[in-house]
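Dear colleague,

Thank you for sharing your sequence with our group. We've completed the structure prediction you requested, and as agreed, I am returning the results in plain text so they can be pasted directly into your records. Please verify that the sequence below matches your submission; if there's any discrepancy, let me know and we will rerun it promptly.
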Amino acid sequence: MMIGFEVNNEEKQNNLEEVIEDYYKLYAPAIYRRCLWLLKEEEASRDAMHDVFVELLMRKNKPEIRNASSYLFRMATNICLKIIQKKSNKYETNCDELLERIACSEDIEEKTISQDLLDKLFSKVPVSSKEIAVMVYIDKMTYKEVSQEINLSVSGIKKRLNKLNTILHGLEKEYLKKD
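Please find the predicted structure tokens below.
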């Protein structure tokens, strides 16, 4: 099936909207399932699925497209990947809960314990890892911003933070055994 995106008059515009409406009825459930599989969230998947058709409407001046289903699935995948990429570049507290808790502790006893844990932690890793942790957990910078600041890839930053988390969890277990 082909979709003609060249719109020269109102009749063609109405026809285009009808074609897109037909595609919505035909492909929306499958595109939603693709988005849900990629995003793992119902609301975000519904939004992404709608974004596919909105983008399709916005591309009305593009040349004809053959095999609309493949095109729509590719659009859905690309939209979902952009959403995933935005999420991974943002600071997320849920994966680094312990480090976040230490960075935000206000209780004097908790601060003392936290300081002891941090001293042990940072004695086991390079100084640059401490800088990364401060930028992410204290300064609330995104991974991308930190990457640009210290000339290290986003994946390198994530690896450093994961290593910090692993070491910290080990130290926490040691500390809890003492009590």
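Summary note from our side: The mean pLDDT is 76.

Kind regards,
the structure core
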